[in-house]
């Protein structure tokens, strides 16, 4: 008799899966199998492949099969807080995917599939809390990305192709072993975006121009002296907080 290979996990039947379908606020169909103790991807859910959202987070999954490609309508895929060591190339066929959360797994840079670069409609990608030592420059192909999570990995740099994505608004790369020079370089990059700066002495300005500049400077000083509100924290509502070590970190990076 062969030895048991890890926990068997809960067996998901088609009936259980059907009873786990919820209707989203926008009328979509969401298959929620989170926190179900699943150790193996349930083949029965392939019969429900027309859902818009699939949540398999907070389970014990080590592998996602290539058959995930059958979920062609999928816009929202949550796999956070499992034990995934790799993703299938077939994930790149999910061309409607808007949101992908693979945070808090065991993914390495080597096992990130090239298919990720094909998700042209992806807006939100969370790769935080994994074992990534670098980010492929090819992720710069995801031109629709607005938010990306890279926190709690082993990154020493982020490629410019990712940092300069045209629609990127939020990038969380906290708690990575970046060298100080990298941090300085990031700050310098934002300064370089000022295209032209003209300097003149006050004596070279006419009285009306001088008054206008002085007034503008006074306004700027008032704004700078105002105490910013510390009560407003970043809000990222869609990123579900896992029941794991990710809890404290993900509270700071929730996505909607």
TrEMBL record:
One cellular-component annotation, GO: cytoplasm
Cleaved signal peptide residues: none
Domain Disease resistance R13L4/SHOC-2-like LRR: start-end pairs: 67-207
Keyword terms: Leucine-rich repeat, Repeat
Listed Low complexity bias regions: 227-242
Listed transmembrane segments: none
Disordered: annotated span: 226-256
Gene3D superfamilies: Ribonuclease Inhibitor
PANTHER family for the chain: LEUCINE-RICH REPEAT-CONTAINING PROTEIN 18-LIKE (PTHR48051:SF42), PTHR48051
Full protein name: LRC18 protein
Species, as recorded: Cepphus grylle
Organism placement in taxonomy: Eukaryota, Metazoa, Chordata, Craniata, Vertebrata
């Amino acid at each position: 008799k062969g030895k048991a290979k890890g926990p068997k996990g809960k067996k998901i039947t088609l009936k259980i899966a059907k009873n786990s379908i919820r209707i989203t606020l926008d009328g979509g169909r969401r298959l929620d199998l989170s926190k179900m103790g699943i150790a193996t991807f349930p083949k029965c859910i392939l019969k429900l492949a027309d859902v818009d959202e699939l949540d398999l987070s907070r389970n014990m999954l080590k592998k996602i099969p290539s058959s995930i490609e059958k979920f062609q309508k999928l816009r929202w895929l949550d796999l956070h807080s499992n034990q995934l060591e790799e993703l299938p190339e077939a994930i790149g066929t999910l061309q409607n995917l808007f949101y992908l959360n693979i945070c808090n797994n065991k993914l390495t840079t080597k096992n990130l599939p090239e298919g990720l670069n094909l998700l042209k409609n992806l807006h939100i990608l969370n790769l935080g809390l994994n074992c990534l030592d670098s980010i492929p420059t090819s992720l710069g192909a995801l031109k629709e990305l607005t938010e990306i999570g890279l926190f709690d990995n082993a990154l020493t740099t982020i490629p410019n192709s990712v940092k300069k994505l045209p629609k990127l608004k939020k990038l969380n790369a906290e708690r990575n072993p970046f060298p100080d020079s990298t941090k300085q370089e990031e700050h310098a990059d934002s300064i370089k975006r000022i295209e032209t700066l003209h300097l003149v002495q006050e004596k070279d300005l006419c009285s009306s121009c001088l008054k206008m500049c002085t007034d503008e400077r006074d306004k700027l000083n008032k704004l700078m002296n105002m105490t910013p509100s510390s009560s407003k924290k970043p809000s990222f509502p869609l990123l579900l907080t896992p029941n794991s070590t990710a809890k404290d970190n993900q509270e700071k990076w929730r996505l909607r």
